[in-house]
Specification:
- The protein is α/β, with parallel strands linked by helices.
- The protein has three domains: 4-102, Alpha-Beta Plaits; 104-151 and 210-269, Rossmann fold (3-Layer(aba) Sandwich); 154-208 and 277-400, 3-Layer(aba) Sandwich (Fe-only Hydrogenase (Larger Subunit), Chain L, domain 3).
- The chain is built from 17 helices and eleven strands.
- The strands form four sheets. A four-stranded parallel β-sheet has the order 6-5-8-9, with helices on both faces. Strands 7-11-10 form a three-stranded parallel β-sheet.
- It is globular, with a radius of gyration of 21 Å.
- It starts with a helix and ends in a 9-residue tail after the last helix.
């Protein structure tokens, strides 16, 4: 019987060639690959052989209560799973695999008659090789059939402005504080599931991924959007009830690398297609501390003389995030703007990053230094984009548009 990986490679190649994806193999695994939306974020590919009367490593690794025991062993409760991948890493028998969404995307590129945009996460710099620039990537995506490639960092710019303006408006005394709502779905899931009492301190904003998808669809109603990043949790975020529809598919860098491989695209040899839009601040969302840095700089630009200065604190990795939140609840805040990222190192340390997090951060910082603007306040493309959406100023957009709003229960 073919393994999941063997079926995946065979079906991906057939889809890339425009052929029917029907192959011989276990029907359940084939259906997982062909229709991933009908299945959980984590797939059990073989029967569970762990002793039923002993704790399972996957259960102990899961902080969210998403691992359940069924007749054939463990199952993943998609309603509780946030996509941290801890269970997959903990399974000593390699029985758990993360979801793959690339095959329906390839089929859309062949069959869909509307535009399809690739939206790359800020952590993308250097993921496909040290000599693969953003311009070469844009060329590659167009050769695969995408209408274009957008950098999600530009939507991080807009959300930086949104969070900075909300901080400037809401934090007027030393006892007030704000938790960032940007970027990390594991951070938000942690607050919603475990620390619900802190939700009033979280601004009602979507992530840059959702902001990008909503913007594309506001400007191009027939468009489909495909987010590409290092994170399984983004696949869970896409399906949250209040966010459904913004992003049609979420792929990891590894899935895209596989697509480049089966289509024999030599990334380094491609011509440049450069369309830089993001500021250094938006690009910095890729690593731990980047959101806090971006918001701090923007708050200072908005009101350099404000009486209550912004004091940031960050945590990366689930244990560190929990420790920081517990400090807040115990009154040991030592800050008024808190950034949390579920992965150590931030998005560059995501479970589906291709390169080491240290190299990823260095690549992102180097790319950020090439940006034509340092902050969203200095970024003319932000104003240009908002004008396309019908808002002449950032302030008017934030006051009168609900495009990037989110209402936490």
């Amino acid at each position: 019987m073919k393994t999941l990986d063997e079926l995946y490679q065979q079906m991906l190649k057939r889809a890339a060639d425009g052929k029917p994806i029907g192959v011989e193999g276990e029907p359940r695994l084939i259906d997982c690959l062909a229709h991933p939306d009908d299945h959980p974020l984590v797939w059990r590919v073989k029967p569970c052989l762990c002793p039923p009367d002993e704790p399972h490593g996957c259960e102990e690794a899961c902080d969210w209560g998403a691992i359940k025991r069924g007749p054939e062993g463990v199952e993943v409760d998609d309603s509780q799973c946030v996509g941290c991948q801890a269970c997959v890493d903990a399974c000593k028998l390699d029985n758990l695999k993360t979801r793959k969404d690339i095959i329906p995307v390839v089929q859309d590129l062949h069959d869909y008659d509307g535009p399809i945009y690739a939206m790359v996460a800020p952590a993308v710099a250097g993921q496909f090789g040290p000599n693969v620039t953003m311009g070469k990537l844009r060329t590659a995506f167009k050769r695969l059939g995408f209408t274009g490639m957008l950098e999600v960092a530009v939507f991080a710019d807009i959300l930086t402005l949104k969070e900075a303006l909300e901080f400037d408006r809401n934090i007027q005394s030393e006892d007030q504080f704000q938790l960032t709502s940007c970027c990390c779905p594991m951070w938000i899931a942690m607050i919603k599931k475990l620390y619900h009492q802190l939700l009033p301190n979280v601004p009602g904003s979507v992530s840059p991924m959702i902001a990008g998808g909503r913007t594309v669809k506001a400007l191009h109603p027939k468009a489909k959007t495909v987010f590409i990043g290092p994170c399984l949790a983004k696949k869970a975020e896409r399906n949250e009830p209040d966010l459904v529809g913004a992003v049609d598919h979420v792929l990891t860098y590894q899935e895209v690398k596989d697509f480049f491989s089966v289509t024999d695209i030599d990334l380094e040899s491609l011509p440049e297609d450069n369309v830089p839009h993001a500021s250094e601040a938006g690009i910095s969302y890729a690593y731990a501390g980047g959101v806090a840095e971006a918001v701090t700089t923007t708050v200072h630009q908005l009101d350099p003389d404000r009486k209550v200065d912004i004091k940031t604190r960050k945590a990366d990795g689930v244990p560190a995030c929990k420790a920081m939140i517990n400090d807040i609840l115990e009154g040991n805040r030592d800050g008024n703007f808190f950034e949390g990222m579920g992965c150590i190192g931030g998005c560059v340390g995501g479970p589906r990053a291709i390169i080491k997090k240290e190299d990823g951060k260095a690549n992102v910082q180097a790319y950020g230094k090439q940006a034509f603007s340092r902050t969203p306040m200095e970024n003319p493309y932000v104003i240009e984009l908002l004008k396309k959406l019908g808002f002449p100023t950032v302030e008017e957009f934030l006051e009168n548009s609900h495009l990037y709003d989110r209402h936490f229960d």
